[in-house]
Specification:
three-stranded parallel sheet, about 50% helix
């Protein structure tokens, strides 16, 4: 890991020395990357409040950490987020190592059968 950090620092220093972006130094073109707001593992009300705040800031999507004790709770959080934001905003979820892979896959299938949950 330390070598990786040094490698990145050296590339950054070289780009700065030439007064160009690293993208240009490597011969590529810059392109915009959409950003999204992060919603923590904070329960229904707080997740909805945070998602709404991101919407007011102009973000076009939010990603929520889920993996509550039951899939029902995951669905409640996702529905509350949908209700608190604009209809055209993307809602992404992240189980973030909250369970074993097989359990996450099973839960994601359950979420998928619910459609957009909106």
């Amino acid at each position: 890991m330390a070598v990786s950090a040094l490698d990145m620092a050296m590339w950054d220093a070289l780009a700065r020395n030439h007064s160009v972006s690293l993208v240009h130094l490597l011969g590529a073109a810059e392109k915009p990357i959409p950003a999204y707001g992060a919603v923590g593992y904070d329960g229904v009300a707080e997740c909805a409040r945070v998602a709404e705040a991101w919407a007011k800031e102009g973000f076009k999507g939010v990603k929520a950490k889920i993996g509550y004790p039951s899939v029902r709770e995951d669905i409640e959080v996702i529905r509350a987020i949908h209700k608190s934001i604009e209809q055209d905003m993307a809602v992404m979820v992240d189980y973030n190592q909250s369970s074993v892979r097989l359990k996450r896959c099973k839960r994601l299938r359950q979420l998928e059968t619910k459609g957009s949950l909106g």
